[in-house]
Amino acid sequence: MPTVNAYIDGFNFYYGCVKGTPYNKWLDLSKLCHFLLPKGFQLSRIRYFTARVAGLPENPDAPTRQNIYLRALANSRPGASKVSGPFS
Length: 88
What we know:
Elements: E1 3-9, H1 10-18, H2 29-36, E2 42-50, H3 62-76, E3 80-84
């Protein structure tokens, strides 16, 4: 069975696809990748590229929520991980 790696640019994915949708906080990337894969392919790993968010006055809990999401992503399946940008 052929295997596939998923590489996700967190910034563009969030602002281009999920911001303002019901999935903007807790999208299961593993389920999404499996849904998009053609039949007969196996997901090997997910790499989620992101930079750490800042706690701005209008959204002071953003860093905490991001940490929770990144931990959930890492625990969602073997092979899932985040890769932080240079500003982390």
